[in-house]
DNA sequence: CTACGAGTTGACCAAATGGTCAGGATGATC
DNA sequence: GATCATCCTGACCATTTGGTCAACTCGTAG
């Protein structure tokens, strides 16, 4: 009864061996998830390693054993979130259909916030605090990302496929609107009186945003 | 030379008398402003009384003398921000012109974020963290505010003055878009490469948002 | 001069902070 | 059975945290 197979199913964790690095992998995953929640809720300074450890169900020393220090853990989480974001929308081209691209953008951004609400809030908290760890990323990679898309939007404008609007502000509009439902979930729930945002809600919101933004920019589908 | 009139002009603050409560008023103002900055940047947990005191140029003891404790100071700031928000948009009626009302809403919300960026970020940080201090406000006052406006929007829809869109989500759209420029200022600056958002920028953004959102909702002005 | 209310502040406290470290546990390899 | 790499963790540390307090300064009112 008190053999190894039981400790196998009860989380605590095997020491030593376990052949490969399975223990490490599992524990790191557990810690990263816990940390994402805690950092998202309290911000970098407000989060404590102790709180993360408790959330992960491990001693503080163990968290530090795997992650080195608080700063490293935080940066690692930010990088993970940036990677998710980068994998979001492939390159687009002038030849693509504006309506399709914008809808896909809204939809995938919405799903990113939906699938990783804690990561989304973590990101938001970092930027709220002046982005001390993300300056480089914002002024580099992300800026490139935005500008290449903006150039395509401009060409669409020239070809009369959409109204002349500043494409960068359009991207911010989409960003903020989609981000809102993850970051300000507490506000949305409080005001609507719901106790969770359902998949149906997400779909309706996505369609609402798509409808309003496409129409608002006078986007003409190539198919028409 | 080392008489009183000098210490009068050098801020430190008069002790004793000063007749009325002018000292109190001035110091409280100073502390509130400093606290707003610090709380906005680090969140409730992450902000320290010491940091607030340094920002205000006072000893920690003095801050606590005026504000009692950290929690009270924080709540007071939230209440101040809520008051600003409540004073924002008067009651609206079905008889008003939808285009005027929406534009006024966007414009005044934008200016609120512009005039009080720290307060705006403070609010955002509070909600990001799950709104532990604001649950009541969100489920009460603010919910009422939103719902009375939503009802007017619905009546406009019935009268064919705008497209049938969920009015609550429309309000969130406007909220998020305007909030973004204060809360995510670091992101906006990083991506655009500017080093501040000018008054001209604000005006252009306001016009962009008005244009896109009004058109996107098919808002008909009564004047037409 | 005295008394008083308002303001100021360094010293102090228990608790929590991020982080280190030594010592131990465990299974795989030789 | 010895060695090794991995993992685990309680004890510990200097620093910072929010908050208290008593001693002080000062102008004014009696």
Automatic annotation (TrEMBL), chains A, B:
Residues 1-26 are annotated as: Disordered. Residues 48-67 bind DNA. SUPFAM superfamilies: Homeodomain-like, Tetracyclin repressor-like, C-terminal domain. Residues 25-85 form the HTH tetR-type domain. The keyword rRNA-binding does not apply. It comes from the Bacteria. It holds the Pfam family TetR_N. Keywords: DNA-binding. PROSITE patterns: HTH_TETR_2. This is TetR family transcriptional regulator. It comes from Billgrantia bachuensis.
């Amino acid at each position: 009864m008190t053999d190894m197979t039981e400790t196998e199913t009860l989380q605590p964790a095997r020491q030593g061996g376990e052949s490969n690095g399975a223990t490490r992998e599992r524990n790191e995953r557990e810690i990263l998830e816990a940390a994402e929640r805690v950092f998202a809720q309290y911000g970098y300074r407000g989060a404590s390693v102790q709180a993360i450890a408790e959330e992960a169900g491990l001693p503080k020393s163990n968290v530090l054993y795997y992650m080195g220090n608080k700063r490293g853990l935080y940066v690692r989480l930010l990088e993970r979130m940036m990677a998710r974001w980068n994998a979001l929308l492939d390159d687009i081209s002038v030849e693509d259909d504006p309506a399709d691209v914008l809808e896909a953008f809204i939809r995938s951004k919405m799903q990113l916030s939906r699938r990783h609400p804690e990561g989304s809030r973590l990101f938001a908290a970092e930027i709220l605090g002046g982005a001390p760890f993300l300056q480089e990323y914002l002024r580099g990679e992300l800026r490139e990302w935005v500008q290449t898309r903006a150039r395509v939007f401009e060409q669409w404008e020239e070809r009369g496929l959409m109204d002349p609007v500043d494409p960068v502000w359009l991207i911010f509009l989409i960003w903020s609107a989609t981000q809102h439902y993850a970051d300000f979930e507490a506000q949305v729930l409080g005001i609507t009186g719901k106790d969770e945002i359902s998949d149906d809600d997400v779909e309706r919101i996505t369609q609402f945003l798509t409808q309003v933004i496409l129409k608002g920019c006078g986007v003409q589908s190539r198919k028409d």
